[in-house]
Amino acid sequence: MAEPETPTRPAEAALRSPDHVMRLSRMGASFPTRLSFTRSLIRQLAREGASVTRPVWEMNDQGYGRAVYAVDLSGHTYSLIAFSNALDPSQRTDRVIAEAWDTGFALFDGVPEKDDLDRLQQNVPRQEAGRCSQRELVLSRANKSVRLFQHVVERLSEGRQPDVAMVDQIGYLMRTTAVYGNGKFGIADRGDIRDRPGMAHPFRAEMLTVWLIREFTHDLAEHVARCRAPERAVGLSDPIKRHLGIGNSTGLGMAPFLVNHPILLNNWMLVRETALARVLAVAGADDATQNAFVTLLARARNHLEDWNVADERQQARIVMLRSEATELGAVIGAGALRNAKPWARLMATAADWSEEAQEFLVALMLEVHGDLIDGLTDCMSAPPVPGLNAAMKLSELQALLEKHYGWALAVDFEQEGAKAQFWYTSEDKAEPRLGLRDEEDGADKEHPLDIARQVQSLSRAIVDAGPDQSVAEFLLARPDQRLMVQRAQAAPSHPYMEIRDNLIGRDCLPIDMLRCKLAFFGATRFDPRSDRWTRITLFQGAPTRHDLSDIDWSFPVMGA
Amino acid sequence: MNVSLNELMGALAKAAIGAGWPHGPARDFAEAAACTDAPDWAAIVSMLERPAPQISGGLLTNAPAILSMPSAVDMVQATGQRVTLGGDDFAGLAAGYARARGHIAMRKEADGAVTFAPGEEGPVRPATRFELPDDIWTALNRLAVRSYVASNEQSRISGAGAGLLDND
């Protein structure tokens, strides 16, 4: 009798070193991949043949009112509840300090009754000032892209499609300015849903919410147009619908998240790097894979041509990337994919290119290897943070610091600018902000994002205490070191948990952290508005509820 | 007030930090409180409002519970020996520290002291929902605000790196 077949683990090349991967500049060159959360959500919805219904649509002619969208995912029904209101332009800000929005949303666990809608109508439009319940899984809001929303409504009401160039330039009808999950403002804790089928992936409920909000924005524009000209109005064409994603405005809150969730960050990075290692180990590319890559590269180059931003630093990087993508095309055209170990060779070829080009190439290579890597997305959530090892000797802890935090111990904090910035929470609606230590008050309330400085402080304290003490004895005298001790003890088993740069230095650009996190979400059209604020687009090119399928929608291009 | 686990732990940790305690003990405190059965919230909040000792090296003596309890649990874990803490009557919270860490048992003594000892049960996953009196929630937020930095026109404009209106 034959032995049961044991699943074999795919071959893997060496992982890229954390010293290489976990630098701010490289994190700030991240691209979304097929491992990103938007992509894995759409794959799951398509695999399950999910259908979306709209059981409630109570909107007046101006598009103010409420609506419900329901979808089944892995045996549970989830409903987006949308509220649309008139908003005075003087109140339309994407900042956390806003107090009113064009729209408010909740993702409801199940299908809401009228009482639920009435209750939420009193609370969801008020966002942080309202109160939700355990039946709500996500709380969000969005503001209109005033220019595009008005244009689309006008055109549709005239029986015409919107201007394609304008659709392409802006890319969304509304942008979310917050998507709250995990218990915020009374909604359900992540612990309530993390063990459910279909909800184990990080930010799954949040991404489902955003995808449904995108559906709502399409419907709302069409509704207002129809109300304006019932006889003449038309709906959005399918290609334009697909190209209209949902925008998002994001600020500094994302940066502390990465530092404060080191195990999660490690797991995201480790999955991506493992996926890359699998691809780099592939012995040869068959014809279908070669053709898929060539087609994808062509589309991605078109995508790059359409990606223009006002930020000079990013625009210069895009221009450079276009040139390097052309070079990549030439390398492929010369037959590079017919070589043995083609992907590893391509990466070697890209070694002299910009980090932006290297990470672009990573995204392309992962895209054509779904069968090899998609299963890894099941490993991106985080188990509970490992507990403190109180028995560890300080000699061992010091050795651990030297092995895993050499990058931190090497920072010279006496150098000018090395401590220039500090992270804090403003009393202004608890908005996360970044201050200049020598110019602003508040450094005494600094958040502990200064990992490198904390490592040095811990190392000095260990020297003072002596190598033979246990961690328990040490923390009895130095409770101020507890946070860093526990963090450091997790480092050996989580190689990608630390951003290996000085996060309070003058040169630290929070935008790099934002881009990294947003790339894992699946964000495209990264559009920095400063070194600490960006707009992006989610689900651009993704299937809508009307044509849900598992297609490659990476690097979206209008009409492709 | 009905609050989520994440909300509760965030409020407790921020309150502890606002009250002047270090970040590490503040987070452990929040976790322990969430793992406490039938918590006496008023007692827990009052614990935060005690003045934090200066921490500049050397052994802490008469350390307040927010510092002594995690250290007691550490010592049991490191040595396998019992540790008894006298003084403050925070047995409920002490049980929370033991349950949050795992493999630690806690017993309340007749004189009000608590004894930690090696135990069998692993770390406990706390409930995800809590009923909290409104005045406790208010007290926690009042303490948490102390960890926030006052806003001014400059920080409002430059601190977040974004403009104030988005009507485009």
Number of domains of chain B: 1
Largest sheet report of chain B? 3 strands, antiparallel
C-alpha geometry of chain A: globular
Number of DSSP helical runs of chain B: 7
Major sheet attributes of chain A: 9 strands, mixed
- The helix-and-strand class of chain B reads mainly alpha
- Pairing-aware structural class of the strands and helices of chain A? alpha+beta
Average of the residue pLDDT scores of chain B: 87
Mean pLDDT of chain A: 95
Helix content of chain B: 40-55%
Q: What spatial form of chain B do the alpha-carbon principal axes imply?
A: elongated
Strand order of the largest sheet of chain B: 2-4-3
SS strand fraction of chain A: 5-15%
Q: What fraction of the residues of chain B are assigned to beta strands by DSSP?
A: 5-15%
State the separation between the terminal residues of chain B, measured CA to CA: 39 Å
Alpha-carbon distance between the termini of chain A? 52 Å
- The strands making up the biggest β-sheet of chain A line up spatially as 1-2-3-4-5-6-7-11-10
How many DSSP H or I helices of chain A?
A: 21
Order of helices and strands of chain B: EHHHHEHEEEHH
Can you give the helix content of chain A as a percent range? 40-55%
Q: What's the multimeric state?
A: heterodimer
